[in-house]
């Protein structure tokens, strides 16, 4: 976003970011989510249903590219599924915890126009079933360490326009549903969205 502000100037860049925020809020709300907060020119959102988070992230990629006021903005999305700590601080509700931190780290893995999703989200049964029936959305698998976490992290990376991206890896073994359900209903998906 630094390049955007330098290229078009502070006032114009901020106006574009404000339009982007409005579009993001519209799409998140339409997909049964809520914008939790903005962090600079990034946004954190939450959903109760993990598949709604995936659908919102993909819809967001396409909508911003098609809208004339936001067409030049390319965003990166990181989604995670897990328990969060919800607190009200100074009258403002916010989420904290490892699930939120992982979502923010995944956003940094995604490239412009991509959605990086955690293993926990990919293994959630409704998302795993969706990935099995929509393999063209998977453009790559990222294998990387996440800052502040131990070990290497593997996660699928999706692209909002499945028609223009063929999978770069075989999808037959990609992200099967887990047996026994390791995700409980009190968990939620977190999203960190930022323009490159």
Radius of gyration: 16 Å
* Helical proportion, percent range: 25-40%
Distance between the termini: 6 Å
Mean pLDDT: 76
What's the total helix number?
6
Which key phrases capture this entry?
196 residues; alpha+beta; two-stranded antiparallel ribbon; 36% helix; globular; disordered C terminus
Describe what is shown at a glance:
This protein is of the alpha+beta class.
Give a written overview of the molecule.
- The strands form two sheets. A seven-stranded mixed sheet has the order 1-2-9-3-6-8-7. Strands 4-5 form a two-stranded antiparallel sheet.
- 37% of the residues are buried.
- With 196 residues, the protein is of the alpha+beta class.
- The longest helix has 21 residues, at 10-30.
- The protein has six helices and nine strands; from the N terminus they run ααββαβββαβααβββ.
What topology does this entry show?
Layout: H1 2-8, H2 10-30, E1 33-39, E2 42-47, H3 50-66, E3 76-82, E4 85-89, E5 92-96, H4 98-109, E6 114-117, H5 119-123, H6 125-133, E7 138-145, E8 152-159, E9 188-194
Parallel strand pairs: 3-6
Antiparallel strand pairs: 1-2, 2-9, 3-9, 4-5, 6-8, 7-8
Helix pairs in contact: 1-2, 2-3
